[in-house]
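Internal tracking record. Fields below are filled automatically when a chain is submitted to the structure queue. Please do not edit lines marked as system-generated. If the sequence contains nonstandard residues, flag them in the REMARKS field before resubmitting.
Queue: standard
Priority: normal
Entity type: single polypeptide chain
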Amino acid sequence: MTSPAAEPRVRVAAYVIRRHPFPALLVFDHVDSPDAGTQVPAGGVGPGEDAQRAVLREVAEETGLTGARVVRRIAVDERPHPGTGQPRLTSFFLLDAPPGGSPAWEHRVRGDGADAGMRFACRFAPLPLERPLADGQDAWLDRVDPRWTASGTDAGGRAGG
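SYSTEM-GENERATED OUTPUT FOLLOWS
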């Protein structure tokens, strides 16, 4: 007898773009866990929570950035978690960054999620990225602008051979 397939964890991920003085993507690194890799804000959607509201909440919780504006959903990625193999369904959204602000800062995560208290070094990284993001999070940047794939990846965010 086979067990029923697990329901995927519903998630959102944010491509927050600052366009001036040059195109740049909001990314962060875990200050206390550098091996986690460079990432974009992402996380779970709460029960009954709208995905657009969830992506704005995740950006604010993980980076402290408020005032971003959702432009559109870019893609829905259905890949398992790289560590646990559990199913995930992640909607990637394009957001415009608010004008002004610092190009880099440190933020301590607030809220009651698993990442509460973590310190993230946030910055706007010039596009195209120098290196791929952790967990293939940059896989959909080419749907915003084909020139924005990371060095060493093809247009789908896959490592080049």
